[in-house]
Amino acid sequence: MTSLLALVLAALPALRQEPAPAAPAGLDVEVGGAVAAALAPEGARAEIGEVRVPPGRGCAPSRAEALRPVTASGDVPLRLAGVDPDGLPCEIFGWARVRVLGGGLLLSRPVLPGDPLEGAVRAAEVEILAGRAPLSSLPRGARAGRALPVGTPLLASDVRLGPLPGEPIGVMVRTGALELSLTGRALACGRGRACALLPGGRRVQGRLEGDHLLVEVP
Predict the structure, then answer these.
(1) Where are the beta strands (DSSP E) in the chain?
(2) Pairing between strand 159-160 and 143-144?
């Protein structure tokens, strides 16, 4: 029985993985222009990789349009227009693999949590990935939010602003037209917010403005 099964399997044609359909000659230039026109990040550029079109549709595309803004590296959907074998207008859809590059900052030395980032970065062209937009400029007083090796592209999530917990911080309490300036101690706080402990023991939360914490009281 085993020998018979082996003979049957040997007689079956080998399975082959069909390659992705290649783009027609000359379409890469049109796709490059379409992607460039759809680039969203200011000053970015795109490198076009593989362009894939559906086979067997009888449509020879010669023009391309990106169907959504190109914000990061990945697959970009395309509308492709051309003519069919009878010379009539036709339209198909495809994809282009795109690598988006833009201005960013690379770490020029390793840093530990809390290290000042000024003098530790250099301007460079970096890849823009979905949900991981690189910083193009360093905020005032920026510190490392975690340990990072040299050569790492700096992201907003890698940076913390303001003093470290326990360090002194100026606090401006604003209620209507009244403003009160105090000096407190910085506390750990949620991302995007800043917290401090006032001299009387009260904990306040607000936002950093320059080198002080602004607390607005309704």
Answers:
(1) 45-52, 60-66, 74-83, 89-107, 121-127, 143-144, 159-160, 168-175, 178-187, 194-197, 203-209, 212-216
(2) antiparallel
Predicted local distance difference test score (pLDDT) of residue 92: 92
- Tell me what the mean pLDDT of segment 47-66 comes to: 87
Cα of 19 vs its chain's centroid, Å: 29
**CA 157 distance to own-chain centroid:** 11
Question: Residues 165-189: pLDDT tens digits?
Answer: 888 888 888 888 888 888 888 887 7
Contact 206, 194 (CB under 8 A): yes
| Domains of the chain by start residue, with CATH | 21-100 (no CATH), 168-216 (2.30.30.760)
Whole-angstrom Cα distance, residue 166 to residue 186? 5
